[in-house]
Amino acid sequence: MHIALSIAALWTMYYHVEIFTNGEWNIFIWPCLVIWIFDRLLRLGRILAFNRNPLNTKATVSYDANSKLVRMDIDGSKNWITPKPGTYYYIHVLDDVLYALQSHPFTLAYVSSKTSASSSTPLSPIGSRPPPHRSSSSLSNESSESDALLPPSAVSHSPSNLVFLIRPYDGFTSRLKNLCLLRPKKLRVLIDGPYGHSEPLYTFPNILFIVGGTGVAVPLSHLHRLLQADSAVHSVKIIWAVREHAFLESILRDFKGVLGDERIEMEVHVTRDEEAQDEPMGRNLKSVRIMTHRPDVRAAVEDTAKDAGQARVAVVACGPALMADQARKATVEMLEKGYRGLEYFEESFKW
User: Fold this and answer.
1) DSSP 3-state of 30
2) What pLDDT digit, counting tens, does each position of 218-254 carry?
3) Of 143, 168, 195, which residue constitutes the final position of a domain?
4) Residue pair 32/13 in contact by the 8 Å Cβ criterion
């Protein structure tokens, strides 16, 4: 669709200036054409780098009715570009014939071992080395959950999948949900990416993530890098507002190993599920606490700044516009009060 619109735009531009017989305005057409061709070649290079047979990339898509979440696992076994936290990919679903030319951007949540999306096998967060500090409770887990923290070569020789967490609304995401409504489904997809850049959050001693819904993909994608041996991180606090308790369970089940690290503290605010209760997550996840009220964003930023003093703090927001506005405003207020170590980062899933 984007290609067709671009060609149409260039074509109409050409006919718009063709009336000038001396061709004095054609010079403005050719730079546009060269830039467009260069952009297409770069995109083609990214597509081929992901899979040299790009029309045969496989994805498993599943829908969880309890968490109201679509999960897409894309085979990344032939990908030449190492996935990085915070990057995003354009996805074409080739099996959706009427809309196959449409591409839709999604932020990478994490990388998993190559298994079915419906299974509960543990995931490998984006990164390469295990964290240096782990709590005694996480060390006591001899199950394969701890393997998610090992270098990929140490876990297994099986290739990895790129995992995307998608909240279905209208249009493409609704069609995607309908495709896998009854059971997980295999699809052919075309992947264009990665795009964007990865913020150097690992250089900050203190990090505060304030996220809502599928915005939890942002801290999840960064966690493993933040816990590596060369990271300056001393504390990571994640405040996550989520509607359904089932969504929470599906995420925590796969990240028990990482969230057991003693440097991580997580507050989960379940805002709509009446069955949720204020409680810790049990012995293995003492750092995770469930709450039933909406998060106080201003208080979270203020408390983090005061605890850090003049040390550097990264405040990262990804969620509804109101949540991001509150986080931004609170960060500015604390800067005005003399806490100069704060830096604000904002991720957005909107165009």
Assistant:
1) helix
2) 898 898 889 888 999 999 999 999 887 777 777 777 6
3) 195
4) yes
